[in-house]
Specification:
Blueprint lengths: L5 E6 L4 H13 L3 E8 L3 H11 L3 E4 L2 H11 L4 E4 H11 L4 E4 L5 H11 L3 E4 L2 H18 L3 E3 L2 H10 L7 E8 L17 H4 L9 H9 L1 H14 L6 E5 L5 E7 L4 E5 L5 H9 L13 H4 L13 H12 L3 H17 L5 H14 L8 H17 L2
Parallel strand pairs: 1-2, 1-5, 2-3, 3-4, 5-6, 6-7, 8-9
Antiparallel strand pairs: 8-10, 10-11
Length: about 375
């Protein structure tokens, strides 16, 4: 095998991030080898991806689809079924690095399994660190596994902060487009339909993260995630609205200097950075032209209009199991909203109610984290 080639396992290959990761792998040719793929469902697409990249090991959470696929491949490919199958693939594939692109609570166990096996993680799922940040980061450190951020904001901070001591950092500044309702009057939010909330002004993303962007809880989750990734107190992380989405995040240092990472709005850029780190390679992407952009604007977020941002800060400060409860309650509300069971304004109302009922566990283990996730989902249903 080429000494420079990295073997990658993509968990969530049929979603937006997973598809973009495969585009990156294809563009980089011999530098990346896709050795394993996994998805929640979409078995036909998963199989097509596996055949295109010569993958011999796949996993799918839907056990019925797994049975169908097993008949189709007739022993030519190993297929692992169920959530436990994805966890197995995360730990036992031949990958050097695992791209975690499964959203929601389902990312926690697989991320933990991969770092426990000493594999580097390219992390695109906020929920893993929000729910189990202490466990995953401590395990990664003990096993010598690196957790490399794929979110454009955290990837930007990683590039700004690399090679500098934590004591040099005063503040992290996470930028946000503000989502599709940035300038919509607060009173109009209750009339929002799922199809409206899914229309992000800058990024093409999956349904869950698109709704999170519309409520701005995605920035709150990113604050908690950044705290774990970079060892920075939640209170030293600021969110700043930047509609142009060119400055992906910034770091302010103790001497007053601010370093920013700029780039085009395309997830393939941070995906490639994480998968090839510490090397950089040329990309096929359009290059940034600042003269064409003309201006960059910034403003503070409206926490009254987007209360889940403030609630996320509160959860981050409390620590312990708070992030897990927040993430699970929000995920359940997003699913209910997409199913037409609650309206857009109910998301923040219900999440806040669930959080008021949560009794924080300071150092939860994985079993407790999973129990809290189930509890939060049940509590959400009681609030419809």
């Amino acid at each position: 095998m080429n000494a420079m080639k990295k073997r990658i396992c993509i968990l969530g290959s049929t979603g937006s991030v997973g598809k973009n990761a495969l585009k990156v792998a294809k563009s980089l040719g011999s530098r990346l080898e896709v050795c394993a793929l996994a998805a929640k469902s979409s078995g036909t697409l998963l199989l097509r991806q596996a055949k295109e990249f010569g993958v011999k090991e796949i996993a799918i959470a839907d056990k019925e689809e797994a049975r169908v696929l097993s008949k189709r491949v007739a022993g030519k490919m190993r297929i692992f079924a169920g959530k436990e199958g994805i966890v197995h693939l995360a730990a036992c594939s031949k990958a050097d690095i695992v791209l975690m692109a499964i959203s929601g609570a389902g990312s926690v166990r697989s991320t933990y399994a991969a770092v426990s096996a000493g594999k580097d993680i390219a992390l695109a799922s906020k929920e893993a660190l929000v729910a189990a940040g202490r466990i995953i980061t401590e395990t990664a450190k003990r096993k010598g596994a690196r957790v490399l951020p794929v979110d454009s904001e955290h990837c930007a901070i990683h590039q700004c902060i690399e090679g500098r001591g934590r004591s040099d950092v005063k503040k992290l500044i996470i930028t946000a487009t503000g989502g599709p309702f940035l300038d919509l009057p607060r009173a109009q939010l209750k009339y929002i339909k799922p199809e409206d909330a899914l229309k992000h002004p800058k990024w093409r993303m999956g349904k869950k993260i698109s709704i999170d962007s519309a409520t701005m809880i995605n920035k709150g989750l990113e604050v908690i995630e950044a705290s774990w990734l970079f060892g920075v107190d939640v209170k030293d992380i600021e969110v700043l609205i930047h509609p142009e989405a060119i400055v992906h995040s910034m770091v302010e240092f103790i001497d007053g200097s601010v370093i920013a990472q700029l780039g085009i709005t395309d997830m393939r850029l941070p995906i490639q950075y994480a998968l090839t780190y510490p090397r950089r390679y040329d990309s096929i992407l359009k290059k940034l032209d600042l003269a064409d952009i003309k201006q960059l604007t910034f403003r503070k977020p409206d926490r009254k209009k987007f209360p889940l941002l403030g609630l996320s800060y509160e959860a981050g400060v409390k620590g312990g199991s708070s992030g897990c409860a927040l993430s699970a309650a929000n995920e359940a509300c997003v699913n209910a909203f997409l199913a037409g069971e609650i309206n857009f304004g109910d998301i923040s109302r219900i999440v806040e109610k669930v959080m008021s009922r949560h009794r924080v566990i300071k150092r939860p283990d994985l079993r407790q984290i999973e129990e809290i996730s189930r509890w939060a989902v049940d509590e959400v249903k009681k609030c419809y």
